[in-house]
Amino acid sequence: MEDVATDSSTTRTTSTTGSPRSAGVPGSADKPRRTRRTRMTGAERREQLLDIGRTLFAEKGFEGTSVEEIAAKAGVSKPVVYEHFGGKEGLYAVVVDREMRSLLDGVTGALTAGHPRELLEQAAFALLDYIETYTDGFRILVRDSPVAQSTGTFASLISDIATQVEDILGLEFKARGFDAKLAPLYAQALVGMVALTGQWWLDERKPEKAEVAAHLVNLAWHGLDGLEAKPRLIGHRKR
């Protein structure tokens, strides 16, 4: 299938006085000269469709976006979209996979080395940086969709990040004489807190990013700092 935009353009030749120039050639006046757009390569067209799909999915969601609209914005026919992705579901899957990898790489890359408090700061900034820079991508990730993805869901992404935080907390717990087997529970709680705050900040954008990160770390770090080895409930309910 020829991958080329569906429209073309024409130009007209005029004289310095602004009137059509015939130069004595019968029928030459007002004769359009056709110009042809540069044809996109398959890779370029694929990236264009991904960019358009990403914007529409973030704005309208999966159900609210159609192949017709994607094709129209790209200036191609519907079969071109099917040729590259097999349909809307295939395009959506690639968009989600890319965003999940981008966010996961950013957060896990921030958890490489440093003091535990510094790691918390870096992880909080990594998430907030992603939300600020790739707002459309984050909207897609946190939006529910009926389409099953090969890479899982936003919940599975959070779980992957929590697994890495778990390793860090495990070492910290051992150093403090706490039960390291509880590290997974605390890791899920910490990452869940940051993720939900990120979803809230997605639309609020107040306070500023650095202040949000500082408050997240304040709650997380001082909560860990005052951690009891054997916490007890103070109410009547015990089970």
From TrEMBL:
GO terms under biological process: negative regulation of DNA-templated transcription
Residue stretches of biased makeup (Low complexity): 1-22
Keywords assigned by UniProt, alphabetized: DNA-binding, Transcription, Transcription regulation
Molecular function, one GO term: transcription cis-regulatory region binding
Domain HTH tetR-type: 43-103
InterPro entries from the UniProt entry: DesT_TetR_C (IPR054129), DNA-bd_HTH_TetR-type_CS (IPR023772), Homeodomain-like_sf (IPR009057), HTH-type_TetR-like_transc_reg (IPR050109), HTH_TetR (IPR001647), Tet_transcr_reg_TetR-rel_C_sf (IPR036271)
Protein known as: Putative HTH-type transcriptional regulator
Organism this protein belongs to: Streptomyces hundungensis
Highest classification ranks of the organism: Bacteria, Bacillati, Actinomycetota, Actinomycetes, Kitasatosporales
